[in-house]
Amino acid sequence: MELWNSYRSYLQRRFGCAVYRIGVDGGFSCPNRDKDGHGGCSFCDGTGAVAVYHRKKESSFHHDSLYDDSVANSLLPRLDSIESQIERGREFLMRRYHAEGFSLYFQSFTNTYDSADNLRAIYDRALSTGTYKEFIVSTRPDVLPDDVVDLLASYASPEMDVWVELGLQSASDYTLRAIGRGHDSACYADAAARLHDKGIKVSTHIIIGLPGEGRDDFMRTVEMVNSVRSEGVKIHNLHVPGGTRMADEYLDGDFTISSEERYLDDAELVLRRLSPDTIIQRLVCETPMHRLIAPRVFPDKSLFLSRLRRQMEEHGTRQGDLYGCGEEDS
Ligand code: SF4
């Protein structure tokens, strides 16, 4: 019996086969990193999330510029790059895992930060490269105008689900201001509601152990994820990449990073408080070591997950067994 509602099992139930994500960097920027913005999230090193098979090509796109005509003019090379990335990703996943089912995942930076016309061209080209079980777009909650939500919803079909991954990180507006997110929690709730109205599934990114936050704070974040009925959640312990404002704060001693033992307890509690229906899409962050200031000592993903399973078996706990309970009992 599974102790939490794993993404892998969900995909097997939903599609009858193992499904693998092909990650794509669409060459998008981020409004929060623009020159007239707020300098980006304090933990953002400007590299963006990339799939392992693209890592040697990190930063091949320039991501920091404001949206302007030069972006539109550079659309054709972006489309060509997207096609070759998908081809490389598919080959890697077939070679490594004998993958047969695929999802298409726009992963890096803010993947709705463009005009609806450009987005349509980019998404259409990507989706023309094959048959996909899921079309997944990662973005910020404040970059989802209604015409873009309508565009995303237009891709959904009985054979392919559309997901939007929303960065929330914390339900505390104080924390969101402190880490420079550039949006508040109400913006996230509104985006999730508008996506759900159009039949789009929502996955929420949250961070456990943000500076100044204790268990009461991230339990409120979990309650918010429950209250908007986010279908999926991506959770991870705080990582501090080098060259960031947060790295300066960490090196100044402004906050500490959770040990493995602390995060095991926190992750267990988060799982217990989440709805049992929420799909757990991530529990550990895998920032490459060469980009990471802290934590420097932490087990790899499979070891951490096996320790978490063992701890929950010993405690007799499982996802959702405290769902709806107001008080922490562990
Ligand atoms: S929203 Fe993402 S890309 Fe933009 S500044 Fe924050 S972490 Fe960086």
Question: How would you summarize the topology of this molecule?
Answer:
Layout: H1 7-15, E1 19-24, H2 69-73, H3 75-97, E2 101-106, H4 116-127, E3 134-139, H5 146-153, E4 161-169, H6 173-178, H7 185-197, E5 201-208, H8 215-227, E6 232-237, E7 240-241, H9 245-251, H10 260-273, E8 279-282, E9 292-294, H11 301-315
Parallel strand pairs: 1-2, 2-3, 3-4, 4-5, 5-6, 6-8
Antiparallel strand pairs: 7-9
Helix pairs in contact: 3-4, 10-11
Characteristic terms for this protein:
seven-stranded parallel sheet, Transcription Regulator spoIIAA, 38% helix, binds iron/sulfur cluster, two-stranded antiparallel sheet, alpha/beta
Bound molecules: iron/sulfur cluster
| Structure annotation, total helices | 11
CATH topology group: Transcription Regulator spoIIAA
- Shape-level CATH architecture: 2-Layer Sandwich
N- and C-termini, Cα separation: 22 Å
Low-confidence runs = 64-69
- The averaged pLDDT comes out at 91
- What is the total number of structural domains? 1
- Shape descriptor reads globular
Order of helices and strands: HEHHEHEHEHHEHEEHHEEH
Provide the gyration radius in Å: 19 Å
What is the number of strand segments? 9
